[in-house]
Design goal:
Radius of gyration: 20 Å
Low-confidence stretches: 1-14
Mean pLDDT: 82
Oligomer: single chain
């Protein structure tokens, strides 16, 4: 039996919901309709160790929307479209393993509140794309987002060379080096399949408008 299964309880009381929302004050006090969504997620079997992830994501979200007028915030977060997106974000939150991932989810939710530039279906697609990328794939997309030239790109490469480095095979490579190249190729193939990168006129992969939009909506470089 897994650790998650051991931590599941058949009856989760209000205390567990309180734990999930305790880190947030502005967001949930302004938007009472969000509390039932959190409660529903908790009652459907989120292990206790994952409830804290919801609390941390909500805190990120609260910090990011703190500059908005409360009336505007409340109005936008009560819409059916936002609540639908928020519910999807909750389930991704329970699977997030890093603070960066939680912040990206919160950023996408925040940007859906602050801007009407995208249709609801487009925001849902971007959130779904985020959920389909693991952290190395997202880092690789970020590398393409730098356009791979200039001082900023050089600094990014230095931080993530193990992920964004070349995939050229050479003779006398070790088994570990071969394996790492295979993983890098797989990361790139995922970005190609999702149309986040694609060939330019010279046949070299470049970030697509969709890939750049995803990075913008999750505030990737911030």
């Amino acid at each position: 039996m897994s650790e998650d299964e051991l931590e599941l309880e058949p009856d989760i009381d209000e205390t567990d919901v309180d734990r999930a929302v305790a880190a947030s004050t502005l967001v949930l006090s302004a938007i009472p309709t969000i509390v039932p969504l959190v409660a529903e997620a908790v009652k459907h079997g989120i292990p206790k160790q994952r409830i804290e992830r919801i609390a941390r994501m909500l805190k990120f979200l609260e910090n990011q929307v703190s500059g908005l007028q409360e009336g505007v915030l409340a109005h936008r977060m009560r819409t059916e479209e936002f609540l639908d997106l928020f519910e999807d974000g909750l389930w991704q939150t329970t699977r997030a393993l890093t603070e960066e991932r939680l912040a990206h989810i919160a950023s996408l939710l925040k940007n859906s509140i602050k801007s009407d530039d995208l249709a609801h279906e487009q925001e849902k697609m971007l959130l779904s794309l985020l959920g389909q990328l693991n952290d190395p794939e997202l880092i690789l997309l970020g590398w393409y987002g730098t356009n791979m030239v200039g001082e900023r790109a050089n600094a990014y490469y230095a931080r993530h060379e193990d992920i964004v480095g070349p995939t050229i095979r050479e003779s006398l490579m070790s088994e570990e080096e071969e394996r790492n190249i295979t993983f890098r190729e797989t990361y790139r193939a995922t970005l190609q399949r999702l149309r986040l990168i694609g060939p330019d006129q010279r046949g070299s992969d470049r970030i697509t408008p969709l890939g750049r939009l995803l990075l913008e909506q999750i505030d990737f470089y911030e």
